[in-house]
Amino acid sequence: MFKIEMLEHTADLKYRVEADTFEELLQGSLKSVIESMTEIEEGRLIDVKKNVCFDAVDELFHDFIRQGLRFVYIDNLLPIAWEDKGSLFGERIEGDYLLLDMSKRKIIFFSEVKAITYQEFKLTKAGDRYLVEFVLDV
Amino acid sequence: MFKRITDYIYEIPKEYKYGMRVDARIYASEELFEKAKEDKAIEQVANVAFLPGIVSYSLAMPDIHWGYGFCIGGVAATDPEKDGVISPAGVGYDINCGVRLVRTNLERKDIQEDKIKRIAHMLFSDVPSGVGKGGDIKVRGEEEKRVMIEGAKWAVRKGYGTKEDLERTEEYGAMEGALPDKVSKTAYDRGASQLGTLGSGNHFLELQVVDKVFAKEIADVMGLFEGQIAVMIHSGSRGFGYQICDDYVKSLRKGAEKYNLPDKQLACALYNSEEGKDYFNAMKCAANYAWANRQILMYLVRKCFEKHFNKSFESLGMNLVYDVAHNIAKMEIHEVNGVKKLLCIHRKGATRAFGPHHKDLPEVYKKIGQPVIIPGDMGRTSYVLVGTEKAMKETFGTTCHGAGRVASRKAAIRNFDADTLLAELKEKGITVISADRRSIVEEAPEAYKDVDKVVDVVDKSGISKIVARMKPLAVIKG
């Protein structure tokens, strides 16, 4: 289970996501990014799955979100969920992005996430809980 | 700890934080300064004072608000000869986000409200807008490189404008030295189909009426008069610029650690280093892309007017007044302690405002100073100012860029409702067209500072002079 909270930020969007596992933390973070841009109906069928794997040590979380945005802006695919295949906190991310093909569907965006920033970025594990705070430039 | 230097300047001495290399100065009235203290913007002005090679002051304009690394409204000059750095955080994600103002011969008294609405709907239909939206113009490979190098000159060469438009564009529509090889493939891909598109968020097209002229002689030079219809275009380098910024914030992030900067987002590199030059030359590609973009947007606007009035844009008097960038870094010569120096000027949410007789101004504006276009929010006013000699002395020839946000998007969504907002704007005679209702709420007038108060500060402090005020008639939101 994950919990998403939108925090105050004058110019853009700041989120705090808490989860029981790192996998759920990624799922929750992806959901917060996508829901910043558009509304996704629950239970939408998936058109495409794309496998990704990152090993870079200090950029894992940012690269994960960057990849999601790359699907939206370059491949015309909207990530609506993340299916984990063994991600490790701070070491590795591996799994499938579950995507909608936007060329086949009418998807209305209300906002454009330009990028994930390093501003006030926090990624921590406290006890059994995982927590991330990040700011999106919109 | 904050010192009030004049009625409109507050100072943060460098003792405020250990590591600040210079004092910081914020141009603000008491009310705007108190507002700025509510979030982390003031801390960000102090953090920028840590940058290696910073000279004079870390500055902020009265539209200051919380940004990334630099606040919005932030200005910093670094000296490359004194190990000065260049920072993508001092430019922002939307590289060369900027504004242009197009005048017309049309007068409000001659155009009925339903006609205004029809033009607005034509603009909405003919000018691509919205998130990630592509346009009709596709540029790939060598052609995309030409856009990066030539900027608005490319657009004019392709028939999207005139030589006179270039004369009335900052940098004449292109910065020299752009190197497309320094741009990632992802950025190329994001830029290929977005030329001639407005984008989303606070970007807009606005039909305006010149509501009041404050300096007639200067307004005459610009071709502005009371009651006149004008069009304001606010857009930038779209996904192309966002990607370049993202790529270089990532690659220059180690600079923030290396120089013990208090904020990770203050990614930077020595200006005189390979990494620093790479960023600057890639940034120029995005800046030039943005000028080409606004040039094409203006072309589309002119086409709409031609179609509607069945007259050429020339006979409608649709000349460009000026085009300014408000997110950019430039190498400029300025005087510091009586010595002329070539400095890297970062302007993030701040506008160049060169005073009269500056060598970089076109002949037509040499006597009056550089026109500065200040967009407000969609329910209130926008302004035309001119740069001053005082700005050259105090702020590296810089002034404010707009109203500046005051409420978060979260608060805007919580507090405002699209139907009520649209009804209130209609009551004021303002038509708003947007593909999505939520963006209207996020951009509600009350989410912004009152631009009247912002320009009052830059006018009274002498770093620019108010020339004319415009009111919106129709707003096309991205």
Description:
The complex is a heterodimer of chains A (138) and B (478). Chain A is built from two helices and eight strands; from the N terminus they run E-E-H-E-H-E-E-E-E-E. With 138 residues, chain A is α+β, with helices and mostly antiparallel strands. In chain A, strand 7 (122-126) and strand 8 (129-137) form a beta hairpin. The longest helix of chain A has 14 residues, at 22-35. Chain B has 478 residues and is of the alpha+beta class. In chain B, the strands form four sheets. In chain B, strands 7, 8, 9, 11, 15, 16, 18 and 19 form an eight-stranded mixed sheet that branches. In chain B, a hairpin with a 2-residue loop joins strand 1 and strand 2.
What is the structure about, briefly put?
The complex is a heterodimer of chains A (138) and B (478). Chain A is of the alpha+beta class and 138 residues long.
Indicate the structural class of chain B. Answer: alpha+beta
Given as residue ranges, the uncertain stretches of chain A (5+ residues, pLDDT < 50) are none
This entry's quaternary arrangement is heterodimer
Largest interface: A-B, 30 and 43 residues
Order of helices and strands of chain A: EEHEHEEEEE
By DSSP, the count of extended strands of chain A is 8
The proportion of strand residues of chain B reads 25-35%
